[in-house]
Amino acid sequence: MTLLSELLTYNETFVKEKEYETYATTKLPDKKLVILTCMDTRLLELLPKSMNLKNGDVKMVRNAGAVITHPFGSVMRSLLVAVYELQADEVLIIGHYDCGMGAVNSESMISKMKNRGISDETIDTLGYSGINLHEWLKGFDDVSDSVKHTAELVRNHPLMDAKVPVHGLVIDPETGRLDLVSEGYVKA
After folding, report:
1. What are the φ/ψ torsions at residue 53 (nearest 5 degrees)?
2. 133-146 pLDDT, tens per residue?
3. What domains are there in the chain, each with its CATH number?
């Protein structure tokens, strides 16, 4: 049985036995909050539990490193949709210690891409098109600095409501302890 088959078989039972009823909520976040955090597997259940959040409390956006690589990309668009369309009144940027993005090396990743069949021609074409893969794929040196930078980018975005507090935190993926990096209630 493939992984997909296994997931679909489980899902069929999940729906048939109405297990979804436990998770019923609306599309609007009860706590009027949107969180941008990392896609790290350790945070899937730990992060909400560490903050006493339940299904329906927040909008959750996940990507590698909780980093916004482009101010007009899909991550920023998701935060703006949460604020303007889904009634989120605050934003949390939550990175974590021991983040894989801190170890990302663009040279190594490009080499792995090539090993999986991405051609030199494709890599070169992207470069000729103005896409700097090394810049786009690079990680960060310090998670607190990265979170602070992302929070500032969101806070100062020309389309973000200036009255919306944007906070930056770092979570310990072993204990769930949250460290405040940037408080959005304080205007700089």
Report:
1. -105, 140
2. 988 998 899 999 99
3. 28-96+141-182 (3.40.1050.10), 105-138 (no CATH)
